[in-house]
Amino acid sequence: MRAAVMMAFVTMMVAARHLGDFSALQLRCCIVRRMTH
């Protein structure tokens, strides 16, 4: 579980650099929803 979360945050950071802040925010919301659910 921890490894999956770490990978999710790494991919989010990489995507943030490539796609931009708005896309990073959407990814962050998706990750938070998956973690809470």
Report what the structure shows:
The chain has one domain (2-36). It has 2 helices and no strands. It has helices at 2-19, 21-36. Helix 1 (2-19) runs antiparallel to helix 2. The mean pLDDT is 78.
- How many helices? 2
Assembly level: single chain
Number of strands: 0
- Name the helicity range: over 70%
* Mean pLDDT over the residues: 78
Measured by DSSP, the beta-strand proportion falls in: under 5%
Outline, from the CA principal axes? flat
Largest sheet properties: none
- Structural class estimated from helices and strands: mainly alpha
Poorly predicted ranges (pLDDT <50, ≥5 residues)?
A: none
Q: What is the rounded distance between the termini?
A: 13 Å
How many domains in all? 1
Task: List the secondary-structure elements in sequence, H or E.
Answer: HH
Rg, Å, rounded: 10 Å
List keywords for this structure.
flat, single chain, 92% helix, 0% strand, mainly alpha
Topology (SSEs and partners):
Layout: H1 2-19, H2 21-36
Helix pairs in contact: 1-2
In brief:
The chain has 2 helices and no strands. The chain has helices spanning 2-19, 21-36.
